[in-house]
Amino acid sequence: MIDEFNKSQSKIHVDAHILPAADYEVKLTTMLSGGVEMDCFMEKRQTDMFSQYDNGFIEPLDDLMAKSGQSFPGVDAYKSAVTYDGHVICLPWRGGTYFLYYNKKIFADCGLPTPDTFVENKTWTWDTFEKLANQITDTGKGYVGASTYFWANCAEFEAAQHQQELITSDGKIQDDGSMLRAFQRRKRMEENKSMWSLIDMKITKTHYSKQFYDGKLGMLIIGEWFPGQVSTGDRDGLMKGFTKADYGIVPIPCDDVNNYITSGLPTSNHVTTSSKKKDAAFEFISWMAGEGGAKVAASYGVMPAMTDSPAVREIIGANLPDKKSLDYYLASYTHYNCAFNKYGTRVTDLIQNLEEEYLLGKLPDGQFDARYRSGLQEIIDTTN
Amino acid sequence: MKKSVSQGKWWIIMSFLLPSFIGFAVFIFLPMLTTLGMAFTNYSGGTKWKFIGLTNFRMAFFKSQFPSYLYLTFKFMFVTVFFQIVLGLGFALILAKPSKGCGFFRSAFYIPNILSSVAVGLAFNFIFEPSAGLMNQLLASVGLPTSKFLTSDKSALGVIMAVTIWQNFGYYMVLFIGGLQNINPSLYEASNMDGANKWQQFWSVTIPGLSPVLFFAITMAVIRGFQVFDFVYVMTGGQAGGGPGGSTTVLAFDIYRNAFQYYRMGYAASESLILMVIILAITAIQQIGQKKWVVYDAV
Lengths: 384, 299
Prior knowledge:
The structure holds two protein chains of two kinds.
Chain A: H1 2-8, H2 24-33, E1 40-42, H3 48-54, H4 62-68, H5 73-77, H6 79-82, E2 83-84, E3 87-88, E4 91-94, E5 98-103, H7 104-110, H8 115-120, H9 126-138, E6 144-148, H10 152-155, H11 157-161, E7 166-167, E8 173-174, H12 178-191, H13 198-203, H14 208-213, E9 217-223, H15 226-235, E10 247-251, E11 261-262, E12 267-271, H16 278-289, H17 291-299, H18 310-319, H19 323-330, E13 334-335, H20 344-359, H21 365-382
Parallel strand pairs in A: 6-9, 11-13
Antiparallel strand pairs in A: 1-12, 2-3, 4-12, 5-9, 5-10, 7-8
Helix pairs in contact in A: 17-18, 20-21
Chain B: H1 5-38, H2 55-62, H3 66-95, H4 102-114, H5 117-127, H6 134-141, H7 156-181, H8 185-193, H9 198-226, H10 230-235, H11 251-261, H12 265-293
Helix pairs in contact in B: 1-12, 2-12, 3-7, 3-9, 4-7, 7-9, 9-12, 11-12
């Protein structure tokens, strides 16, 4: 991406400093707090931007956007995810939507209808998903019905679809029981072996792509970047018993099929307040957020934030298995994300911890609400 | 004015001490002072912060999981110190006298100590992998029940303790071998003449003779026990939050999370300060207590 930008013009040269993904957030925190000279940076954990902005590390972009005279379709598409305190504080370059990816060969082998059938019938709910995953596992052919990754935001889908913020920006607890329902579902499915064990995959660092590549996983819920990993897996011969043409994409399940809501946050870039070259930094992140960056992102199989250009759509289509998947992938969805505010990072850690305790049987249903609410209250009381 | 010899020597001594003193001041003393100050603020990495008195300490003790993390840290410290010292002493007693193969075994037990903890942690991750790991394959091959090891909240901390003990007991063994070889052999001869058996010799000659080294080893092991972080980070999830259900969240790991993941550097500093006070208090208690059992004049 950076090489392409440097090649695309001669005025600005971007010198990239690559941080390893596993330690990205921690290294970024240290660099920002330590005053390392840096003009712009990519946000990996989106909820960190609130602390960064409050600490004065991030430059509001409104003036720079106005000065540029450009349009920013990615900002319009993800307005709530890029705005804080009334200011646009980042430009998204990658889209943010979770999808369900399924292995058509496994469904055929099990004699089961593929998830798109249920989407078309308007019966693609979480109960249908659970039932389908159980059916795959129950065939006894060694398949695991489904996997949802161990990240806490993956446990928040149902709460997000019920528009429960968990902790609102003004410090109020909000949950209608969706979180417990999601935990209960996962536990039932794990006990039936129709869901990959969350704790196993976290501690053994089993990557979701490996689960899918191995050809034993029926359905995988993961972000919009996954088609790129499938393309890589296909190219490198990592996929066992199936190819890129044998998978499909549908939206994640939702209980209210007539008022569909999905989850996911775009990946964005910020300009730092300490930058002495803010105009140049802004030009670079604008390019990434625009058609130039979108074409490069699409060519790697990730969804750009800006998808309304026909050229970009054509590149995206080349990376996807079929027309139906492309339509689902590029459809316009309503997004909602739990605790997308200054409490967010700690809330996701709390959810992850409680989910693990719940799955281990250490947190009975009767005690869940009290523990959950006291954990949220502790976060409210102890966040600056 | 003519310089005196002692004045000249003083400058030579200071010039040798200065580089390490600068290092100590810049990398240890100043950060300690900064931590001390930060613990009483809501500092979160940026330029906006304020003095909040004892709020961070009140939050730690009354509004967070801090006491449970402290409990896990103590548990880890007690278990690892006990086994490191007992195993280190046991193997030192076996390997102290030169015999065939003792050089090999001394090296074999000491080598883990010089390996990188990250590399050791990753290697043991493979060994203790629950489905296809070497340990479970070994257990299954001899008909023993397999375990979930790091993926169970009941065993995750135990596995980390075991790896810590495995990596470190060789270090204490080497210290004890040095201590044992310095005990005057005539003390054993005298005790033999007095009719003491091996057990009596161990308690009346070996332990008193070894007590200065033993005291040093226990003090170091306690301090290192409180500071455990690397194996917790590498073996149970790293940035993803530690072992199952918080089962490996020791204090140093919580400090790291608060400082670098939640931008709560003031609070993390207060946790560090509490940890430092605990370590200082225990070391002071050991220092006072050693007068009753450490013998420096056994000849």
